[in-house]
Every structure is written in C-alpha cells, then in structure tokens.
Design brief:
about 0% strand, elongated
C-alpha cells in the first residue's frame, strides 16, 4: 500500500486517491484496520504526509453561461420538475 501511495504522490495524484484506497480496503477487509497491523499504520502515515505535501484544492465554479446552457438543454429535453 505504501508503495502505491508513493507512486501516486510522485505521479502528481491528489491525496484523495490514497484516502479512497484506505476506505475501500477497510470496507472490504475490516480486519486490516486493527491497531497492530503495521502495513495499515504505515499506509496511514504515508497518506498523512501525502496530504501535507500535496494539499487538496478547490475547483472553480462553473461559468454562468455553462449553467444557463445546461438549464436550457434540460428544458428542451423536457427534464424539469414541477
């Protein structure tokens, strides 16, 4: 897991990739989250460092023209809620 996280960091992926990996593993294999499991502990440390060195960022909002165009497309297709 740590090798995957290191590779993701070096490739420029966001920290959310590592978060999703740990969440998926803990969902599928809950026994991996035990405190004595050093592999998961090291992966959590790697994720903490990854998020510290490559913090997340906010996306810019959609321009008004895009929102208005999407609304017009939905109206023309009859996709509105009354």
């Amino acid at each position: 897991m740590v090798e995957f996280m290191n590779a993701g960091f070096l490739e420029g992926d966001g920290g959310y990739v590592g978060s999703r990996l740990l969440a998926a593993l803990s969902y599928i294999r809950p026994e991996l989250g035990r405190p004595c499991d050093m592999a998961v502990h090291r992966a959590k440390q790697a994720l903490r460092g990854w998020k510290r060195l490559a913090p997340g960022f906010s996306r810019l909002p959609l321009p008004w023209e895009v929102v208005a165009g999407a609304a017009m497309l939905m109206l023309s297709e009859g996709l509105w809620v009354e």
